[in-house]
């Protein structure tokens, strides 16, 4: 009697890991294995298994998912939590899949070799399957050169403004919101309101006043620029290297009647030459800069500010690893979501800002806030799935669903964090112009700054 395919694969996985299956599996022949009280991986065909065998770990799973060869039956968040320690825990080597690959190398006993042969026979392994079309394979030029950064930003942001509006909602803010509580607590706690609260928090931390000049680096679709200009009367220069973002940002600024206060440019931060500015907001921008360039980025922002000027740096962080030299971005994120993106521990960010001459005055963690935000974005995507697929592609929509759900789990489990760092360029006499107390954190949204 032929052994069910799921039993063959389950034995192989459990011998490789030395652990019971953390989630259920269901294969193309209808056979099942593993826990029955939770979510399960569904392998629709042998191609899914081939992808997993050729690239064990996160990248193989991602390729099978994006291609539609693999799906999840049940709660996606619960499944990601159950497998997170296998894929996303770094220890020593700096690679999240090193432990899994190492486990596969121990399959040398006669029983284990039989499991390997049966699994290979089940997959019909020949040449490795081609990666899905959504994967970034070729990259030209040195990492974080202007040309390569432009291509990386285009891959992520030029997916289509309509797609982002569907996922993010009317606020069109693509960064962590600032919640009063769980979004399920009431209708007065929506993602749009939480994003407005975040933008206002940034403005208050920067102490914006009418007539000042603000630089918004990585301005996205203009939401921060519009809020600062409309609520606080400041002159704003917003820069992005995404043509699609800039086009929509300009339309929104014009529709709001803020053309006289807001200028949106397609410009790299290294090309800004009309300083000084009274304040700078950098929200979700530093992740694209790269570790080797971050000190240069901090130096440029310091030079662009007036003495006494403030910087608000809103940035995703990661946990430090034992050997920082071996850190690499997750292969799924690097190849499908943020090419050349990098995360740094919050301590490294603070140190580099200080080395550039800034005085760091406040650090606020918003880790749990981002988990809530991402779950709202995933819910938006799932509620408008058919439309999202039409606007992009089935593979691209699947990429965004997986990356946002996995990121939510990362923030919930403290694998990742996000922090607002408030820093100031002190004057030559050391004066910061900062208040003696952190009262700015308790001030509510106000239009009094326009007076």
Structure write-up:
The chain is of the alpha/beta class and 451 residues long. Helix content is 44%, strand content 15%. α1 (5-17) crosses α6 (110-123) and α12 (291-304) crosses α14. Residues 89-108 and 442-451 have low confidence and may be disordered. It is an enzyme of class 2 (transferase). It comes from Streptomyces achromogenes.
Describe the protein's topology.
Blueprint: H1 5-17, E1 24-26, E2 32-33, E3 40-43, H2 46-54, H3 58-67, E4 70-73, H4 76-87, H5 98-104, H6 110-123, H7 146-157, H8 161-168, H9 191-205, E5 213-217, H10 223-232, E6 235-240, H11 243-255, E7 262-266, E8 277-283, H12 291-304, E9 305-318, H13 331-337, H14 346-355, E10 359-365, H15 367-383, H16 385-391, H17 394-412, E11 416-424
Parallel strand pairs: 1-3, 5-6, 5-8, 6-7, 8-9
Antiparallel strand pairs: 1-2, 3-4, 9-11, 10-11
Helix pairs in contact: 1-6, 2-3, 3-17, 4-17, 9-10, 12-14, 15-17, 16-17
Rough outline: elongated
| E-strand count | 11
Low-confidence stretches: 89-108, 442-451
The biggest beta sheet reads:
7 strands, mixed
Distance between the termini: 84 Å
Compute the average pLDDT.
87
**What value does the Rg take, in angstroms?**
24 Å
Range of helix content: 40-55%
Number of helices: 17
Helix/strand-derived category reads alpha/beta
- Give the SSE order as H and E letters: HEEEHHEHHHHHHEHEHEEHEHHEHHHE
How are the strands ordered across the major sheet?
7-6-5-8-9-11-10
Strand content: 5-15%
């Amino acid at each position: 009697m032929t052994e069910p395919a799921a039993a063959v694969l389950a034995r192989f996985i459990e011998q490789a890991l030395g652990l019971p299956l953390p989630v259920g599996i269901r294969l193309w022949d209808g056979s099942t294995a593993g826990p029955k009280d939770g979510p399960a991986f569904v392998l629709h065909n042998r191609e899914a298994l081939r992808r997993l065998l050729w690239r064990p770990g996160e990248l193989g799973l991602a390729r099978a998912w994006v291609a539609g060869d693999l799906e999840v039956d049940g709660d996606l968040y619960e499944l990601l939590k159950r497998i997170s320690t296998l894929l996303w825990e770094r220890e020593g080597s700096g690679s999240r899949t090193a432990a899994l690959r190492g486990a596969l190398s121990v399959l040398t006993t006669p029983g284990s070799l039989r499991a390997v042969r049966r699994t290979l026979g089940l997959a019909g392994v020949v040449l490795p399957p081609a990666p899905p079309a959504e994967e970034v394979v070729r990259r030209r030029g040195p990492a974080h050169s202007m040309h390569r950064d432009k291509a990386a930003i285009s891959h992520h942001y030029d997916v289509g403004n309509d797609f982002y509006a569907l996922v993010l909602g009317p606020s069109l803010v693509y960064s962590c919101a600032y919640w009063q509580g769980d979004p399920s607590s009431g209708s007065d706690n929506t993602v749009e309101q939480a994003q407005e609260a975040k933008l206002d928090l940034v403005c208050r931390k920067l102490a914006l006043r009418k007539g000042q000049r603000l630089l918004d680096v990585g301005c996205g679709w203009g939401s921060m620029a519009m809020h600062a200009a409309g609520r606080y009367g400041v002159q704003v220069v917003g820069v992005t290297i995404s043509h699609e973002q800039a086009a929509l940002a300009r339309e929104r600024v014009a529709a709001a009647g803020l053309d006289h206060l807001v200028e949106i440019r397609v410009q790299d931060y290294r090309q800004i030459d009309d300083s000084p500015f009274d304040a700078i907001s950098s929200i979700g921008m530093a992740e694209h800069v790269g570790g080797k360039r971050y000190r240069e980025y901090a130096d440029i922002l310091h030079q662009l500010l007036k003495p006494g000027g403030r910087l608000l740096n809103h940035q995703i962080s990661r946990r430090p690893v034992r050997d920082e030299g071996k850190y690499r971005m997750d292969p799924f994120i690097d190849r499908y979501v943020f090419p050349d993106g990098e995360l740094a521990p919050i301590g490294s960010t603070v140190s580099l800002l200080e080395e550039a001459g800034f005085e760091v005055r406040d650090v606020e963690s918003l880790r749990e806030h981002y988990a809530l935000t991402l779950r709202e974005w995933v819910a938006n995507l799932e509620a408008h799935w058919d439309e999202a697929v039409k606007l992009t592609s089935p593979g691209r929509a699947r990429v965004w669903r997986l990356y946002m759900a996995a990121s939510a789990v990362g923030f919930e489990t403290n694998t990742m964090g996000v922090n607002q760092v408030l820093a100031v360029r002190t004057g030559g006499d050391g004066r910061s112009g900062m208040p003696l107390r952190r009262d700015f954190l308790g001030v509510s949204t106000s239009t009094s700054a326009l007076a």
